[in-house]
Write a structure and sequence with these properties.
The chain is mainly alpha-helical. It is about 70% helix and about 0% strand. Helix 6 crosses helix 8 and helix 7 (about 140-145) crosses helix 8. The longest helix is centred in the middle third of the chain and has 26 residues, at about 55-80. It starts with a helix and ends in a 10-residue tail after the last helix. Keywords: Sigma factor, Transcription, Transcription regulation. Belongs to the sigma-70 factor family. ECF subfamily. This is RNA polymerase sigma factor.
Length: about 180
């Protein structure tokens, strides 16, 4: 390490450690994070002389390194289970299954049918707006062209249609178990 980096390390070492400790809330993780930060600083030592505010630069590196580690851990935990070293389950059981169950599929079909029936109670203009946006998945601009109105009008109609549909669904006492308040 150069004298410049030695000076920076001596001046900001405790600050970076306390920031890492505040972020991780764990002494061991804070030390690991701090080590990663200083490795990045050393790798980018040619930029140190160009930096006007060293403390802010170090803080940014620390925050970004923490975010990167957090995201990496989230991605890893999404696909891995906490298991002992020897697994008693096949590795394929650890891969998430993104398919929806038969029960969820039946429920989805039932809810879709209910919503479509209740949409029939809306005015035609609101039905079309909802249909274009949610079923045909047109953009607001495409809907405004199709309906020959401004995008603001499409937004208003979409808002009013959703509000009215919610009112209709909430008013149906037979749907109390399905509709959430």
């Amino acid at each position: 390490m150069t004298n410049c980096l030695n000076g920076i390390y001596e001046e900001f070492n405790r600050y970076i450690y306390h920031l890492c400790l505040k972020l991780t809330r764990n002494k061991a993780e804070a030390e690991d994070l701090m080590q990663e930060v200083w490795v990045k600083v050393i790798r980018n030592q040619e930029q140190v002389e160009k930096v006007d505010h060293i403390k802010a630069w170090l803080t940014t590196i620390t925050m970004n390194t923490f975010r990167d580690r957090y995201r990496k851990n989230v991605r890893r935990s999404k696909y891995m289970m906490s298991q002992p070293e020897t697994l008693d389950v096949p590795i394929l059981d650890l891969v998430p299954n993104n398919e929806i169950s038969t029960e969820e599929q039946v429920e989805k079909v039932a809810v879709t049918k209910i919503v479509q029936e209740k949409m029939q109670e809306l005015d035609g203009i609101y039905q079309k707006t909802l249909w274009y946006f949610y079923v045909d998945q047109y953009s607001l601009a495409e809907i405004s062209t199709l309906m020959k109105v401004s995008i603001g009008t499409v937004k208003s109609r979409l808002f009013r249609a959703k509000a009215r549909l919610k009112e209709i669904l909430m008013a149906d006492t037979a749907l109390e178990d399905v509709v959430l308040a």
